[in-house]
Write a structure and sequence with these properties.
Elements lengths: L1 E5 L3 H12 L3 E5 L3 H8 L4 E2 L3 H7 L5 E4 L3 H11 L8 E4 L5 H13 L3 E8 L4 H4 L2 E5 L2 H14 L5 E5 L3 H29 L7 H8 L8 H12 L15 H11 L5 H12 L6 H14 L7
Parallel strand pairs: 1-2, 1-4, 2-3, 4-5, 5-6, 7-8
Antiparallel strand pairs: 6-7
Helix pairs in contact: 5-8, 8-11, 8-12, 9-10
Length: 298
């Protein structure tokens, strides 16, 4: 099947390779001309701009975007003038589901189908396949199903609802991920801080991956990282968030659903970005004022 991929970063680039390996014909474009050229030699055809992308595609065109959430609107605006009724735009990035609902409705009025695909798998998706959470009309989903089959492992994709549903499910997926990561982080930090035992964290991670109730793919990745460097000495404890955790917490509050683990895991990420917490200084000062508790000087 023929399709275009716009955005050839870590995810988009690997998806192109997997699709080419699956026998699909790829037209590729990235804002970096060098990045586009690097994929031409791997079986894809390069495009010089979005107009050229559309020009090389045979109707019914299918264009998959793997661009940052902040660039989706601009990309669609620049792409739509070159598309025709019946064409399909796929957003496989981490867009807010409300934006995806709006885009599906707006594009539908122009006769263009919009599919939102929550995509999980990271850099491992090239070899293991991607988990795809798909929001679309049934007709658009069925038309593009050969693409999803090539990208996902067996049973690794599903039509979860209409436009916006894919990114909604992916949002909650990532909220759960925040909580899982935080639980592993806290557990390994307790082991690392032990005053009674000098523990080999790589060994423990490997142990837990064999029969333990806490075994998981995330813990397999912890085993890889800790086996290379038990102290994680070269890594700064600064954790970014890509938005989905915040959106999950907002949605939980909107629905009156208690989500303390996900909420606190998000706050822990924000705390990781401070060299030193002024709030902690305030607490230390107040404890000293009311109880005479010692404070530590810098």
């Amino acid at each position: 099947m023929q399709l275009a991929m716009i955005g050839l970063g870590r995810m988009g680039g690997n998806m192109v390779r997997r699709l080419v390996q699956g026998g699909h014909e790829l037209i590729v474009y990235d804002s970096s001309a060098d990045t586009t050229k690097s994929h031409v030699g791997k079986g894809a055809k390069g495009a010089k701009d979005l107009a050229d992308v559309a020009r090389q595609l045979t109707p019914r065109r299918v264009v998959w975007m793997m661009v940052p959430a902040g660039a989706v609107e601009r990309t669609i605006e620049q792409l739509v003038p070159h598309l025709s009724r019946g064409d399909i735009i796929i957003d496989g990035g981490n867009s807010n589901f409300r934006d995806s609902v709006r885009r599906a409705n707006a594009l539908g009025k122009q006769g263009i189908e919009f599919i939102d695909v929550g995509t999980s798998g990271g850099i491992w998706g090239l070899t293991l396949g991607y988990c795809l959470m798909i929001g679309a009309s049934l007709a658009a989903f069925q038309h593009c199903e050969p693409i999803f089959q090539a990208l996902a492992p067996s049973e690794g994709y599903a039509h979860v609802g209409p436009g916006g549903a894919g990114h909604y499910v992916k949002m909650v997926h990532n909220g759960i991920e925040y909580g899982l990561l935080q639980a592993y982080a806290e557990g390994y930090e307790i082991l690392h801080a032990s005053r009674d035992f000098t523990l080999n964290l790589g060994q423990i991670a490997k142990l837990w991956n064999h029969g333990s109730v806490v075994r998981s793919w995330l813990n397999e990745l912890a085993e890889r990282a800790l086996s290379r460097d038990d102290q994680l000495a070269t890594i700064r404890g600064y954790v970014e968030d890509s938005g989905e955790g915040r959106w999950t917490v907002e949605e939980a509050m909107r629905l009156d659903v208690a989500a303390p683990v996900i909420t606190l895991s998000l706050l822990a990420r924000l705390r990781s970005r401070q060299e030193e917490s002024f709030g902690a200084k305030v607490i230390a000062a107040l404890r000293n004022e009311f109880g005479g508790h010692a404070v530590q000087s810098r």
